[in-house]
């Protein structure tokens, strides 16, 4: 637990610092984090990082991650067009390797590139919002962290009914509700100082989306780890596992916030 707390403290300090600085520093940090997360995902699948399929997958992830205006400044193709080119190259890999690398592998790489690239892309979009970008990302992080913290302590103290034992045996329904309640408290407290939304109801929608879908994102990564039969996505964060273990909720939540037009 001590190791976990120390890693969490310094990790949060680093992340909050780059969020505050913003600009190229924040973009560079997010790109680095995304590359590590993609590497962890490919490694969990057993794909060598030095291989055509891994290189293509990393490129596809970057195609979705980088800001749209970056592609427009030098390329004839949009980010999604580059991504589709990557998909066809993955298909080509299955042929050139004589099905040693299969459609299964190609599908895994494609989904992973969307999951990581599109999720982190919208984190960059949120930070780039004029005037309120810093506070918006800050609130998102606080809500995700408070959900995790509330779910852990409430579940540990009062948890009885399993939430989804086939995927994550330790998570409980009581813990999930406790996480939502903690996020709600933190969100209302934050809103009382920084009213980012035109109405209180919009804040509630924002909180519930992050807290509920953040927990779904955690279960999605748990399902992935069970599928590939690993405990953690990596070992880069002592006491926490890998980068993907720490950002699974964020990656799932960010596109949903965008779809609900809550990042503007």
Automatic annotation (TrEMBL):
Pathway where this protein functions:
Lipid metabolism; Phospholipid metabolism; CDP-diacylglycerol biosynthesis; CDP-diacylglycerol from sn-glycerol 3-phosphate: step 3/3
Q: Just give the chief location class.
A: membrane
- What sort of enzyme, by top EC class, is this? transferase
Compartments, record wording: Cell membrane
Q: What is this protein called?
A: Phosphatidate cytidylyltransferase
Q: Kindly state which reaction or reactions the protein catalyses.
A: a 1,2-diacyl-sn-glycero-3-phosphate + CTP + H(+) = a CDP-1,2-diacyl-sn-glycerol + diphosphate
Q: What EC numbers are recorded for this enzyme?
A: 2.7.7.41
Family to which the UniProt record says this protein belongs = Belongs to the CDS family.
Topology relative to the membrane, per the entry? Multi-pass membrane protein
> PROSITE patterns, alphabetically?
CDS
């Amino acid at each position: 637990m001590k190791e976990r707390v120390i890693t969490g403290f310094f990790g949060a300090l680093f992340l909050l610092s780059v969020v505050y600085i913003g600009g190229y520093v924040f973009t560079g940090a997010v790109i680095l984090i995304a590359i590590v997360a993609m590497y962890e995902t490919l490694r969990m699948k057993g794909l060598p990082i030095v291989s055509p399929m891994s290189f293509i997958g990393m490129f596809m992830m970057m195609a979705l991650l980088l800001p749209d205006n970056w592609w427009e400044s030098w390329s004839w193709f949009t980010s999604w067009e580059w991504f589709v080119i990557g998909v066809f190259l993955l298909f080509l890999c299955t042929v050139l390797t004589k099905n040693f690398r299969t459609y299964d592998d190609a599908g895994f790489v494609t989904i992973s590139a969307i999951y990581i690239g599109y999720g982190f892309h919208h984190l960059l979009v949120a930070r780039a919002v004029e005037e309120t970008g810093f506070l918006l990302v800050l609130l998102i992080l606080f809500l995700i962290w408070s959900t995790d913290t509330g779910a852990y302590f409430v579940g540990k103290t009062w948890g009885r009914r399993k939430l989804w034992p086939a995927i994550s045996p330790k998570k409980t329904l009581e813990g999930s509700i406790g996480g939502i309640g903690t996020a709600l408290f933190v969100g209302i407290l934050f809103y009382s100082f920084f009213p980012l939304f035109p109405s209180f109801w919009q804040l509630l929608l924002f909180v519930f989306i992050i807290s509920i879908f953040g927990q779904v994102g955690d279960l999605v990564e748990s399902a992935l780890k069970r599928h590939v039969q690993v405990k953690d996505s990596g070992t880069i964060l002592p006491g926490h596992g890998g980068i993907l273990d720490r950002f699974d909720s964020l990656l799932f939540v960010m596109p949903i916030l965008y779809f609900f037009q809550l990042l503007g």
